[in-house]
Amino acid sequence: MKDKIVAKATEMFLKFGFKSVTMDDIANDMGISKKTIYKYFINKEVLVIESTSTVHQHVIDTIASIVEKNYNPVEENFEIRKIFEGIFQSADASPLYQLKKHYPDIYKLVMDKEEHECFQYMRHNIQRGIEQGYYRENLDLENSMRFYWTLIMHINETTMLEKDAKKLELAALCYHTRAIGTEKGIQELEKQLSINT
């Protein structure tokens, strides 16, 4: 039952927002009593933590499965971008924006984990890109990762509507790829843009 509650809460939080969904809403949607939810979760904050952990693990597992498919590094970034669109497609408001605004302590916990995992992925992507000739050999790897991460986080922390965040994220991905790309990398970027937009 606990896992079912987390799954339903996660679905509702992503669709309607962390703040607006109440324990009553979750109980009513599941056809159970609120008392049943409180049997497993002492308060809503604990349920939000569980839900964000579930989303985080899903994202990390899916990124790992895409990395295993051995796309070229530019294409890999576009494939990973599709994951996030799939996860958040029903959301009107940006989930990270809401989380930061209404649950700043939980947001910090999530972002600390997210940064560590995402930096590992980005480092691997850039190193492969250099080896395969998509990214420039002389680039500053650590600063390239940090600049891109900062752009993406700023977009998600300050953009209220998810559809606006998606447009800006694509612009950030293009900016990042053009900043570190070789001619081969830019050509692949243009190819991906023609396929994916």
From TrEMBL:
Gene3D superfamilies: Tetracycline Repressor, domain 2 (1.10.357.10). Residues 1-59 form the HTH tetR-type domain. Residues 22-41 bind DNA. InterPro entries: Homeodomain-like_sf, HTH-type_Tx_Regulator, HTH_TetR, Tet_transcr_reg_TetR-rel_C_sf. The keyword DNA-binding applies. Pfam families: TetR_N. This is TetR/AcrR family transcriptional regulator. It comes from Flavobacterium agri. It comes from the Bacteria. The keyword Membrane does not apply. Keywords: DNA-binding. SUPFAM superfamilies: Homeodomain-like, Tetracyclin repressor-like, C-terminal domain. One of its GO terms (molecular function) is DNA binding. Signal peptide: none annotated.
